[in-house]
Amino acid sequence: MTVRRVVVDHVLFVVADLDASRGLYTAALAPLGYKELYLQDDCVSYGAEELDDFTICRGEPVTTAAHVAFSAEGRDAVDAFFAAAVANGATVRGGPGVWTQYSERYYAAFVNDLHQNNVEAVWHAPEPVVDAPRRPGVP
Fold it and tell me: For an engineered disulfide with 90, which of 8, 25, 40, 111 has Cβ 3.0 to 4.6 Å away?
């Protein structure tokens, strides 16, 4: 199994409507094991094990057209991320499946957040995933 090294310490997106974005991210990140760690008047920080790796803050200019991929522990987590994100205001960019241009083991789903940022949940399967939709192309 590949051991992944952390190359980015944290990510911050600036949002226009903190309450709406908080609703989307809190719901979408929960199936991945990420929760609200710190709440301020203008920011919410998310992570696991007391590590605030992702933060959203109210302000201007808003972050647009960025991409962030969150690690998932399995297919069910990717599927639940996708369902929760769409139920809370995200739009579909690419449904759950094997994104073959990356790998036969790359099971992911992609949504656009409220500012058209490309937000992804990905599971790097230990073996090729054979019983899931094939998603060629770039989401």
Answer: 111
- We report the CATH number of the domain holding residue 30 as 3.10.180.10
d(CA 78, CA 83): 9
* 106: in domain: yes
Contact criterion met (CB below 8 Å) for 87 and 116:
no
* Residue 110: closest CA among 73, 135, 74, 76: 135
Alpha carbons 136 and 134: distance in angstroms, whole number = 6
Domain count, the chain: 1
Looking at the predicted structure, is the pLDDT value of residue 6 above 80? no
Q: Got the DSSP string for 24-52?
A: HHHHHHGGGT-EEEEE-SSEEEEEETTEE
Lowest mean pLDDT among 15-24, 49-58, 115-124: 49-58
Report residue 3's pLDDT band, with 50, 70 and 90 as the boundaries: confident
Q: What CA–CA distance (Å, rounded) separates 121 from 35?
A: 15
